Amino acid sequence: MINPKIRLKEYENKKKRLIKEFLSKDEVRLGKNTSNLFRHRKETNSTINVRDFNKVIHVDTNNLIIEVEGMTTYEELVKESLKYNVMPTVVPELKTITIGGAVTGVGIESSSFKYGLVHETILEMEILLGDGSTVTCTPKNKHKDLFFAFPNSYGTLGYALKLKVKAVPVKKYVELTHIKFDNPNEYFKKVKEFCEKTKEFDLIDGSIFNEKEMYITLGKFIDTAPFVSDYTYMKIYFKSIQDKKKDYLTISDYIWRWDTDWFWCSKHFFVRKPLIRLIFGRRLLNSKTYWKIRVWNGKYKFAEKIGKLFGASKTESIVQDVEFPIENCKKFINFFHKEIGIKPIWICPVKVYDKKVNYDLFQMNKNKLYVNFGFWDMVKTKYEDGHYNRKIEKKVSELKGHKSLYSTVYYSKNEFDQIYNKKRYSLIKKKYDPNSKFKSLYEKCVEKR
Question: Is this prediction's pTM over 0.85?
Answer without folding.
Answer: yes
